[in-house]
Amino acid sequence: MKFNTKTIHGGQENIDPAYGSVMPPIYQTSTFSQTTPGKHKGFEYSRSANPTRAALEAAFASIENGKFGLAFGSGLAAIDAVMKLFKPGDEIITTNDLYGGTYRLFTKIIEGFGIAFHFVGMNNADTIETYINKNTKLIWVETPTNPLLNIVDIKKVASIAKKHKLLLAVDNTFASPYLQQPLDLGADIVMHSATKYLGGHSDVVMGGLIVSDKELADKLYFIQNASGAVCGPQDSFLVLRGLKTLHIRMQRHCENGKAIAEYLAQHPKIEKVYWPGFETHPNHSIAKEQMKDFGGMISFVTKGNNYNEAIRIVENLKIFTLAESLGGVESLAGHPASMTHASIPKEEREKLGVVDSLIRLSVGIEDVEDLIADLKQAIG
Ligand SMILES: *Cc1c(COP(=O)(O)O)cnc(C)c1O
């Protein structure tokens, strides 16, 4: 089955043996009856497993070319479950420009349990090897990164991980499986904030993990059940519904993203546009190789790098909504310096490239002429 068919049918065979409904019923129940102790129809208690969630988990596995999918109450809950694979003394190497919430989880909670992190710039994957020692257990990669759209060479990092017998996890939230499938490139774990492109409609918070190794899947299922950060049946249904249009949404996100990146690049008031589709992007050739297209996430900096000017632009936008998050059908704009990255000291933030005038766009699937006109009137 090819990708566009999988988004609609993947893992959905015989979804409702009772009545043959085309969409899985929302099994809004905490528990399931047993005829005699231990004898049931495959489901006992909805933390352990729920049929609607199971349908979604099968779909997750299918679209990422994995064997096993697991759904969680949020993207961070999914990451937290991965962290529970490790013990005090273990070390993890991760990208240095992580999603802020992941950085907070790693540094404020997981480090406190005796697990050490190395935050490493991975534009050149070779630097990773200098951080590997006998305690290293995992490489955690985000690509493209937030908000500067850096690209990490997944295949190359996977070969380093294999050589040293480490696990490789990829946060595939920004790309979605439409653009890249990390398991095929050698990763062991794919993680998603399904809140973003997978759900796609800004109406649910959810996380997912996809793996192919049975032993790893068993460990993660144990953690999912034992720690209990699962999502509910209603949310599972919503994301399953969202998935069915992932491919056509992504196609339009990419088309609109390209048109807007090109518009911004020629605008006289704009200093720099971050988008992996430009040949001038430092890792454009890797993006071209590992991604099907370049996505709908774009960041840009205005000339003069003026904080108030950036605030004025995001306030003036009328179709783009000023909001955190990304990946929904509607276009969003964000100002990292005052929003997602406000808690990082200015000096440190600027070292990462998150300067005062940086604006991040999640380009939606509206008519691109309207989006460009909105940017034009707001930037002036
Ligand atoms: C949003 C996001 C997360 C966290 O997911 P939640 O669903 O908000 O918990 C993790 N990684 C990336 C790249 C994200 O964009």
| E-strand count | 12
Instruction: Estimate the mean pLDDT confidence.
Output: 96
Q: Let me know the largest β-sheet.
A: 7 strands, mixed
What would the principal axes of the Cα set say about the shape?
Answer: globular
> Strand percentage, roughly?
15-25%
Cofactor: pyridoxal 5'-phosphate
Enzyme class: transferase
EC number: 2.5.1.48
Protein name: Cystathionine gamma-synthase
How would you characterize the overall build of this protein?
The chain is α/β, with parallel strands linked by helices and 380 residues long. It has two domains: 3-243, Aspartate Aminotransferase, domain 2 (3-Layer(aba) Sandwich); 246-379, Aspartate Aminotransferase, domain 1. The protein has 13 helices and twelve strands. The protein has a seven-stranded mixed beta sheet, sandwiched between helices. Helix 5 links the parallel strand 4 (136-142) and strand 5. It is globular, with a radius of gyration of 21 Å. It starts with a helix and ends with a helix. 48% of the residues are buried. The model has no long low-confidence stretch (mean pLDDT 96).
